[in-house]
Amino acid sequence: QVQLVESGGGLVQPGGSLRLSCVASGSFFTIYTMAWYRQAPGKQREFVATFTRGGEIHYADSVKGRFTCSRDNAKNTVYLQMNSLKPEDTAVYYCNAVSRLSGASSWGQGTQVTVSS
Question: What Cα–Cα distance (Å) separates residue 7 from each residue in 3, 78, 93, 94?
């Protein structure tokens, strides 16, 4: 099972930017469908963005136009560039990997993003 480690969270003012990283251990990184989720205090975990099997990227409506996902297969890393951050983006952001072979799902430990003035 792949191990995921997120980083890049922090405190940022409204309108600011952050870039999150998620590094996956192990090999065969390309067989995993990677996604980002987030969980705000008192709320359920929600979908943020994912890479489809065809290589497209789907975003939640709430982040569309502000967040950009990318991946570097050579570094086993996916990124989430977050621009024009809003207080409602405050949450713990999690990286998720689902094996296309087994369906097994792995989660990182999360990284806190706080948007506040």
Answer: 14, 11, 9, 10
CA nearest 69: which of 77, 78, 112? 78
| Cα R_g (the chain), whole angstroms | 14
On whether the CB atoms of residues 21 and 6 are closer than 8 A, the answer is yes
User: DSSP character for 8?
Assistant: -
Strands (E), 1-117: 4-7, 10-12, 18-24, 32-39, 46-51, 57-59, 67-72, 77-82, 91-99, 105-107, 111-115
DSSP 3-state assignment of 87?
Answer: helix
Question: CA-CA distance, 98 to 96, in Å (whole number)?
Answer: 7
Q: How many CB atoms lie within 10 A of CB 107?
A: 13
Contact 40, 16 (CB under 8 A): no
- Tens digits of residue pLDDT in 18-60: 999 999 997 677 788 999 999 999 999 999 999 887 778 999 9
